[in-house]
Amino acid sequence: MYQQITLSVRETCAIITLNRPNRLNALTRQMLAELRHAIATAEDNPHVVGIVLTGAGRGFSAGMDSEALAAGTRGEGFGEEHYPELEADPGDQDMGPEFRVSYAYLLSARKPLIAAVNGPCAGLAFVIAALCDLRFAAESAVFRSAFAQRGLVAEHGVSWILPRLIGTSHALDLLWHPRKVSATEALKMGLVNRVVPDSALLETACQYMNELAAASSPASLMQIKQQVYRGLMQPLDVAMNEAGARMEESFKRPDFAEGVASFLEHRAPQFPRIGAK
What we know:
Order of helices and strands: EEHEHHEEHEEHHEHEHHHH
Structural class: alpha/beta
Radius of gyration: 19 Å
Number of helices: 11
CATH superfamily of the largest domain: 2-enoyl-CoA Hydratase, Chain A, domain 1
Largest sheet: 6 strands, mixed
Strand order of the largest sheet: 1-2-3-4-6-9
CATH topology of the largest domain: 2-enoyl-CoA Hydratase, Chain A, domain 1
Number of domains: 2
Number of strands: 9
């Protein structure tokens, strides 16, 4: 079905691979539509606990395809293409409308999402990686925003998420300066969660998801993700009251009974999985 990405499942981990290696996985409207559809497909698969996004070949993605950028300078726009066969609605609507705008659907995805960044990650791909829940970087990974160098602004919410990840000064530095940020520097500033050898990147990300699947309730993972992102925009009292309400609801779910039983019985838990909405 997909022409510019691939989707596979390894144990409990869905792997979405940007797959235009001859173009350094430069993003097209079709690829972005395929990505959105693949996220929704992985969300609906009850065998999948988490999703890993990576790039084929020597890089994650160079950002928006140069031909699409050229079309933009001619006033032809970027979003006219429509792919009816790829229509999808990923993410949890209960997160609220602010998490349904543009690529914010990644923040509302109902399952953990890791960007496994190999090689260059630039422009819009940099935004997409920032909007994933975690970022694991290969030693070869390099990050670059490139917006100011193209006469653009910080696109698609990256000016919202980046200061929350690494602080205001680091965010401005990355969004202003044209340099390439290495995986080591990205780790120091908190942009990535861990750096591993290139050959171990995908295995490390999938192993993380499998460890979550073995020990954690998928429903709890989803609820905690919602709490964290919604909490970024809530006063303390609202967040506390919402946490209390969610806690009362969690007592009624089978996950709580299984979590307690498995602890008392010294065995691995068997939590219900999350599938179609």
